[in-house]
Design brief:
Number of strands: 10
Radius of gyration: 17 Å
Distance between the termini: 6 Å
Mean pLDDT: 82
Largest sheet: 4 strands, antiparallel
Structural class: mainly beta
Strand order of the largest sheet: 2-3-4-8
Order of helices and strands: EEEEEEEEEE
Low-confidence stretches: 99-108
Bound molecules: FE2/S2 (inorganic) cluster
Number of helices: 0
Oligomer: single chain
């Protein structure tokens, strides 16, 4: 697979990102606490510039009145319509087509898998060679 040097390690500090053009594709390279990830800068919803979106975390609730904030800076929110994707996997965290204001029976189930949506942003392998960040395209 072709490899492309896209940055030096110093150019993308922890919590930072750089959007690059590689082989005709816009790709966002993210540094999450020293580990690099790359996502296609094209939202699976309607093609928005996903990688330019705000970074946030996950909020989960074990019960009414209790919440837990985790994975700060690891979820990117598309600037066009707000769909959220996991920077580590490219997986969506909601399925807006299924969101409706109706009442449903409620039960408690373990596991974050229940919250994941069916959409996946394209991801690319990232390595650090010396002081350079390198991505592979398919
Ligand atoms: S284009 Fe990204 S949420 Fe609509």
């Amino acid at each position: 697979m072709p490899q492309f040097i896209v940055a030096t390690v110093q150019e993308i500090p922890p919590g930072g990102r750089k959007i690059v053009e590689v082989a005709g594709r816009s790709i966002g390279v993210f540094n999450l606490d020293g580990v690099f990830f790359a996502l296609r800068n094209r939202c699976p919803h309607q093609g928005g510039p996903l990688c330019a979106g705000a970074l946030g975390g996950l909020i989960s609730s074990p019960g009414p009145g209790e919440y837990h904030y985790s994975r700060a800076g690891e979820i990117v929110r598309c600037p066009w319509h707000g769909w959220e994707f996991d920077v580590r996997t490219g997986r969506s965290w909601c399925d807006p087509k299924k969101m409706r204001l109706m009442n449903y029976a409620v039960s408690l189930e373990p596991g974050a898998k229940l919250a994941e949506g069916p959409y996946v942003a394209e991801t690319f392998p990232v390595t650090v060679e010396g002081t350079y960040v390198v991505i592979e395209t398919k």
